[in-house]
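Take a record:
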Amino acid sequence: MLYATGMRLDELCHLRCADIIHSSMKIYIRHSKNHSDRYVPLTESIWQMILDYWYTFPAPEHPREWLFTQQTRLDHPMDKQWIQREVLLLRRSLGMDSRISAHSFRHAYATRCYENGMDLLTLKAYLGHSSINSTCIYVRLAASYKEGFVNPFDQLEGGM
C-alpha cells in the first residue's frame, strides 16, 4: 500500500475503512503531515488488494474502523514501529541497502509517477506537499535518460 499510494507510514496506519471510497475510486487521507486532507487515486488493483486483505479475517473480525489494525488489538490502528521493524527484518534477510526504509516506498512511488509522465502539480497534490519545492526532489531522483528522448538541439531545422 505504501508503494501503491505514496502515503506516509503514519497515514497508512491511521487509514480508516470509511476512507476507502470505491464509488469515486479515491482514498481519503486525513490530517496528513501538513494538517491538511487530500485524496489519492484508488485503482482497481489497489481495491482488489484491500479486499483480499479484508477477507483474510474471519467475518466477525473484519476490520470495521481501522483498515490496518494492531495484531492483538483490533480496535487500535496498526503501530508504525511494527511496520518499520518488519521492513528492517526483510531488508536484512534480503541483503538490501541499509538506507531502505518504509519511507523508501513513498519515494519510489513519487519517482516512478514522475518518470511515467505525471505532472508535478498533480504529484504534489497526491503526496500532500505544501510546497512544490518538496515535490521537485523527485525530478532529481528520476532517471535522467528516458527512452525516446530527443535533444531539443537535434530538433532544430538544418542543425548547425
In short: The radius of gyration is 19 Å.
